[in-house]
Amino acid sequence: MSATLKAEIVRKLIAEVDGLPPRLRLAAKYIVDNENAFGMDPIRVSAEHIGISANSLVRLADHLGFDSFDALREPFRSSLLARNDTTSGEGWIDRLAEEGEFGQAHARTLRNEADIVMQSLRHLTAEKAKAAVAMLMEARNAYVTATRASYALAYYFHYVGRMALPNLHLIPRHMGSPVDEMISVDQEDVLLAITFPPYSADTISALRLAKRNGTRVILISDSELIAPAIEVDLFLKVSLQSQHHFSCIAGAMSVLESLLYHLVTRGGEEAQSRIASYEALREDFGAYWQPKVPKLRRT
Question: DSSP states of 40-64 as a string?
Protein backbone atom coordinates (compact mmCIF):
# COMPACT_ATOMS: atom_id res chain seq x y z
CA MET A 1 0.00 0.00 0.00
CA SER A 2 2.85 2.41 0.83
CA ALA A 3 4.35 2.02 -2.66
CA THR A 4 0.98 2.80 -4.25
CA LEU A 5 0.45 5.87 -2.06
CA LYS A 6 3.99 7.06 -2.74
CA ALA A 7 3.40 6.77 -6.50
CA GLU A 8 0.14 8.73 -6.15
CA ILE A 9 1.91 11.51 -4.26
CA VAL A 10 4.65 11.75 -6.90
CA ARG A 11 2.09 11.85 -9.72
CA LYS A 12 0.16 14.61 -7.95
CA LEU A 13 3.30 16.67 -7.35
CA ILE A 14 4.29 16.42 -11.02
CA ALA A 15 0.79 17.39 -12.15
CA GLU A 16 0.53 20.38 -9.80
CA VAL A 17 4.12 21.63 -9.57
CA ASP A 18 3.73 24.57 -11.97
CA GLY A 19 0.83 25.99 -9.93
CA LEU A 20 2.58 25.85 -6.55
CA PRO A 21 4.23 28.84 -4.81
CA PRO A 22 8.01 29.04 -5.43
CA ARG A 23 9.15 27.40 -2.16
CA LEU A 24 6.61 24.60 -2.40
CA ARG A 25 7.65 24.09 -6.03
CA LEU A 26 11.25 23.57 -4.86
CA ALA A 27 10.06 21.10 -2.25
CA ALA A 28 7.94 19.21 -4.78
CA LYS A 29 10.84 18.88 -7.21
CA TYR A 30 13.14 17.65 -4.44
CA ILE A 31 10.67 14.95 -3.38
CA VAL A 32 10.12 13.79 -6.97
CA ASP A 33 13.86 13.67 -7.68
CA ASN A 34 15.05 12.30 -4.31
CA GLU A 35 12.45 9.81 -3.11
CA ASN A 36 14.93 7.70 -1.12
CA ALA A 37 16.58 10.61 0.71
CA PHE A 38 13.18 12.13 1.47
CA GLY A 39 12.07 8.83 3.01
CA MET A 40 15.12 8.70 5.31
CA ASP A 41 15.80 12.28 6.38
CA PRO A 42 14.07 14.25 9.15
CA ILE A 43 12.27 17.44 8.21
CA ARG A 44 15.13 19.83 9.04
CA VAL A 45 17.65 17.87 6.95
CA SER A 46 15.28 17.79 3.96
CA ALA A 47 14.59 21.50 4.33
CA GLU A 48 18.33 22.23 4.43
CA HIS A 49 18.95 20.19 1.27
CA ILE A 50 16.17 22.04 -0.53
CA GLY A 51 17.11 25.48 0.78
CA ILE A 52 13.73 26.27 2.35
CA SER A 53 12.27 26.39 5.85
CA ALA A 54 10.83 23.34 7.58
CA ASN A 55 7.51 25.18 7.68
CA SER A 56 7.38 25.09 3.86
CA LEU A 57 7.46 21.29 3.97
CA VAL A 58 4.65 21.32 6.52
CA ARG A 59 2.65 23.58 4.18
CA LEU A 60 3.26 21.17 1.29
CA ALA A 61 2.08 18.25 3.42
CA ASP A 62 -1.08 20.19 4.26
CA HIS A 63 -1.60 21.04 0.57
CA LEU A 64 -1.44 17.33 -0.27
CA GLY A 65 -4.00 16.47 2.41
CA PHE A 66 -1.68 15.14 5.15
CA ASP A 67 -1.97 16.27 8.76
CA SER A 68 1.82 16.41 9.31
CA PHE A 69 5.18 16.17 7.60
CA ASP A 70 5.75 12.71 9.07
CA ALA A 71 2.50 11.50 7.52
CA LEU A 72 3.69 12.74 4.11
CA ARG A 73 7.10 11.11 4.54
CA GLU A 74 5.78 7.78 5.84
CA PRO A 75 4.90 6.20 2.42
CA PHE A 76 8.42 7.02 1.17
CA ARG A 77 10.03 5.62 4.33
CA SER A 78 7.97 2.42 4.29
CA SER A 79 8.65 1.85 0.60
CA LEU A 80 12.37 2.30 1.18
CA LEU A 81 12.45 -0.18 4.07
CA ALA A 82 10.53 -2.76 2.02
CA ARG A 83 13.02 -2.56 -0.85
CA ASN A 84 15.07 -5.67 -1.60
CA ASP A 85 18.48 -5.78 0.04
CA THR A 86 21.05 -5.09 -2.69
CA THR A 87 24.08 -5.94 -0.54
CA SER A 88 23.55 -9.71 -0.48
CA GLY A 89 26.18 -11.64 -2.38
CA GLU A 90 28.62 -8.74 -2.32
CA GLY A 91 31.13 -10.15 0.11
CA TRP A 92 33.85 -9.64 -2.48
CA ILE A 93 33.25 -5.90 -2.25
CA ASP A 94 33.54 -6.06 1.53
CA ARG A 95 36.90 -7.80 1.13
CA LEU A 96 38.10 -5.00 -1.13
CA ALA A 97 37.39 -2.53 1.66
CA GLU A 98 39.94 -4.37 3.81
CA GLU A 99 42.76 -3.48 1.40
CA GLY A 100 43.65 -0.11 2.82
CA GLU A 101 42.50 3.39 1.96
CA PHE A 102 42.37 2.82 -1.81
CA GLY A 103 40.48 -0.44 -1.32
CA GLN A 104 37.87 1.33 0.80
CA ALA A 105 37.41 4.02 -1.84
CA HIS A 106 37.21 1.37 -4.57
CA ALA A 107 34.58 -0.57 -2.62
CA ARG A 108 32.49 2.60 -2.21
CA THR A 109 32.42 3.34 -5.91
CA LEU A 110 31.61 -0.28 -6.82
CA ARG A 111 28.70 -0.34 -4.41
CA ASN A 112 27.55 2.96 -5.85
CA GLU A 113 27.64 1.64 -9.42
CA ALA A 114 25.71 -1.49 -8.45
CA ASP A 115 23.14 0.57 -6.57
CA ILE A 116 22.42 3.04 -9.36
CA VAL A 117 22.00 0.19 -11.86
CA MET A 118 19.54 -1.56 -9.54
CA GLN A 119 17.63 1.64 -8.82
CA SER A 120 17.38 2.52 -12.52
CA LEU A 121 16.20 -0.97 -13.48
CA ARG A 122 13.69 -0.94 -10.63
CA HIS A 123 12.15 2.20 -12.16
CA LEU A 124 11.97 0.47 -15.57
CA THR A 125 8.79 -1.50 -15.01
CA ALA A 126 7.57 -4.01 -17.59
CA GLU A 127 4.74 -1.61 -18.42
CA LYS A 128 7.13 1.26 -19.15
CA ALA A 129 9.55 -0.88 -21.14
CA LYS A 130 6.71 -2.29 -23.23
CA ALA A 131 5.33 1.21 -23.87
CA ALA A 132 8.74 2.57 -24.91
CA VAL A 133 9.39 -0.29 -27.34
CA ALA A 134 5.90 0.01 -28.84
CA MET A 135 6.32 3.76 -29.36
CA LEU A 136 9.67 3.28 -31.09
CA MET A 137 8.57 0.41 -33.30
CA GLU A 138 5.25 1.95 -34.34
CA ALA A 139 6.72 5.35 -35.26
CA ARG A 140 7.23 6.43 -38.87
CA ASN A 141 10.62 7.73 -37.77
CA ALA A 142 12.23 7.34 -34.33
CA TYR A 143 14.84 9.91 -33.34
CA VAL A 144 17.32 9.60 -30.48
CA THR A 145 19.06 12.74 -29.26
CA ALA A 146 21.56 13.80 -26.61
CA THR A 147 24.52 16.16 -26.40
CA ARG A 148 27.89 16.35 -24.67
CA ALA A 149 28.69 13.42 -22.35
CA SER A 150 25.30 11.74 -22.80
CA TYR A 151 25.78 11.78 -26.59
CA ALA A 152 27.81 8.58 -26.19
CA LEU A 153 24.70 6.84 -24.87
CA ALA A 154 22.58 8.06 -27.77
CA TYR A 155 25.26 7.03 -30.27
CA TYR A 156 25.48 3.51 -28.88
CA PHE A 157 21.69 3.11 -28.74
CA HIS A 158 21.45 4.19 -32.38
CA TYR A 159 24.45 2.10 -33.48
CA VAL A 160 22.87 -1.10 -32.19
CA GLY A 161 19.20 -0.18 -32.45
CA ARG A 162 19.22 0.73 -36.15
CA MET A 163 20.05 -2.90 -37.00
CA ALA A 164 16.70 -3.91 -35.52
CA LEU A 165 14.88 -0.67 -36.28
CA PRO A 166 15.98 0.79 -39.65
CA ASN A 167 13.93 3.98 -39.18
CA LEU A 168 15.93 4.92 -36.04
CA HIS A 169 17.90 8.16 -36.54
CA LEU A 170 20.60 9.79 -34.40
CA ILE A 171 20.41 13.58 -34.08
CA PRO A 172 22.46 15.66 -34.26
CA ARG A 173 24.57 13.62 -36.65
CA HIS A 174 27.23 16.31 -37.01
CA MET A 175 28.13 19.51 -35.16
CA GLY A 176 24.73 21.19 -35.40
CA SER A 177 21.76 21.30 -33.06
CA PRO A 178 19.12 18.55 -32.88
CA VAL A 179 16.45 21.01 -34.02
CA ASP A 180 18.30 21.44 -37.33
CA GLU A 181 17.27 17.88 -38.21
CA MET A 182 13.73 18.01 -36.82
CA ILE A 183 12.13 20.29 -39.39
CA SER A 184 9.72 17.61 -40.63
CA VAL A 185 8.87 15.76 -37.40
CA ASP A 186 5.18 15.41 -36.59
CA GLN A 187 2.67 13.25 -34.72
CA GLU A 188 3.74 10.11 -36.58
CA ASP A 189 7.26 10.31 -35.16
CA VAL A 190 8.88 9.66 -31.77
CA LEU A 191 11.76 11.47 -30.06
CA LEU A 192 13.85 9.65 -27.45
CA ALA A 193 15.80 12.30 -25.53
CA ILE A 194 18.58 11.68 -22.99
CA THR A 195 19.77 14.49 -20.72
CA PHE A 196 21.33 14.79 -17.28
CA PRO A 197 22.15 17.80 -15.07
CA PRO A 198 23.27 20.34 -16.05
CA TYR A 199 20.53 19.81 -18.63
CA SER A 200 21.43 20.55 -22.24
CA ALA A 201 19.79 23.65 -23.73
CA ASP A 202 19.88 21.96 -27.16
CA THR A 203 18.05 18.90 -25.85
CA ILE A 204 15.44 21.05 -24.12
CA SER A 205 14.89 22.96 -27.38
CA ALA A 206 14.43 19.64 -29.19
CA LEU A 207 11.88 18.51 -26.59
CA ARG A 208 9.88 21.73 -26.95
CA LEU A 209 9.94 21.57 -30.74
CA ALA A 210 8.80 17.95 -30.65
CA LYS A 211 5.77 18.76 -28.51
CA ARG A 212 4.94 21.81 -30.63
CA ASN A 213 4.79 19.52 -33.66
CA GLY A 214 2.77 16.85 -31.87
CA THR A 215 5.67 14.38 -31.79
CA ARG A 216 5.54 11.78 -29.05
CA VAL A 217 8.40 12.05 -26.55
CA ILE A 218 10.31 9.55 -24.41
CA LEU A 219 12.60 11.19 -21.84
CA ILE A 220 15.45 9.39 -20.07
CA SER A 221 16.72 11.51 -17.19
CA ASP A 222 16.97 11.75 -13.43
CA SER A 223 13.98 14.09 -13.30
CA GLU A 224 10.77 14.69 -15.20
CA LEU A 225 10.98 18.34 -14.17
CA ILE A 226 14.10 19.34 -16.11
CA ALA A 227 12.79 22.73 -17.28
CA PRO A 228 9.52 24.69 -17.50
CA ALA A 229 7.05 23.83 -20.28
CA ILE A 230 8.47 20.36 -20.90
CA GLU A 231 5.84 17.68 -21.54
CA VAL A 232 6.70 14.04 -22.19
CA ASP A 233 4.60 11.03 -23.10
CA LEU A 234 6.82 8.54 -21.30
CA PHE A 235 9.41 9.25 -18.60
CA LEU A 236 12.11 6.67 -17.82
CA LYS A 237 13.81 7.66 -14.60
CA VAL A 238 17.45 6.72 -14.00
CA SER A 239 19.70 7.14 -10.99
CA LEU A 240 22.83 9.27 -11.43
CA GLN A 241 24.30 9.19 -7.92
CA SER A 242 28.04 9.62 -8.16
CA GLN A 243 31.15 9.39 -6.00
CA HIS A 244 32.85 12.02 -8.15
CA HIS A 245 31.94 15.35 -9.78
CA PHE A 246 30.09 14.01 -12.83
CA SER A 247 26.94 11.92 -13.08
CA CYS A 248 27.31 8.14 -13.26
CA ILE A 249 25.64 6.85 -16.44
CA ALA A 250 25.75 3.11 -15.70
CA GLY A 251 22.07 3.14 -14.73
CA ALA A 252 21.07 4.88 -17.94
CA MET A 253 23.09 2.41 -19.99
CA SER A 254 21.38 -0.53 -18.29
CA VAL A 255 17.97 0.92 -19.21
CA LEU A 256 19.03 1.43 -22.84
CA GLU A 257 20.45 -2.11 -23.00
CA SER A 258 17.13 -3.48 -21.79
CA LEU A 259 15.25 -1.55 -24.48
CA LEU A 260 17.69 -2.78 -27.14
CA TYR A 261 17.05 -6.36 -26.11
CA HIS A 262 13.32 -5.91 -26.61
CA LEU A 263 13.78 -4.11 -29.94
CA VAL A 264 15.95 -6.90 -31.32
CA THR A 265 13.66 -9.61 -29.96
CA ARG A 266 10.47 -7.95 -31.20
CA GLY A 267 12.10 -7.38 -34.57
CA GLY A 268 12.04 -11.13 -35.18
CA GLU A 269 13.60 -12.72 -38.26
CA GLU A 270 13.78 -9.41 -40.14
CA ALA A 271 15.91 -7.89 -37.39
CA GLN A 272 18.15 -10.96 -37.25
CA SER A 273 18.60 -10.83 -41.03
CA ARG A 274 19.59 -7.14 -40.93
CA ILE A 275 22.06 -7.79 -38.11
CA ALA A 276 23.64 -10.62 -40.13
CA SER A 277 23.89 -8.33 -43.17
CA TYR A 278 25.60 -5.60 -41.13
CA GLU A 279 28.08 -8.10 -39.72
CA ALA A 280 28.85 -9.61 -43.13
CA LEU A 281 29.42 -6.16 -44.64
CA ARG A 282 31.81 -5.18 -41.88
CA GLU A 283 33.77 -8.37 -42.23
CA ASP A 284 33.99 -7.93 -46.02
CA PHE A 285 35.52 -4.47 -45.59
CA GLY A 286 37.88 -5.44 -42.78
CA ALA A 287 36.09 -3.56 -40.00
CA TYR A 288 37.23 -6.07 -37.40
CA TRP A 289 40.81 -6.94 -36.64
CA GLN A 290 41.68 -10.55 -37.33
CA PRO A 291 44.88 -12.23 -36.17
CA LYS A 292 47.09 -13.42 -38.99
CA VAL A 293 47.45 -17.16 -38.97
CA PRO A 294 50.92 -18.18 -40.24
CA LYS A 295 50.88 -20.57 -43.15
CA LEU A 296 52.39 -23.96 -42.59
CA ARG A 297 55.58 -24.52 -44.58
CA ARG A 298 55.86 -27.65 -46.61
CA THR A 299 58.87 -29.75 -45.83
Answer: HS-HHHHHHHHTS-HHHHHHHHHHT
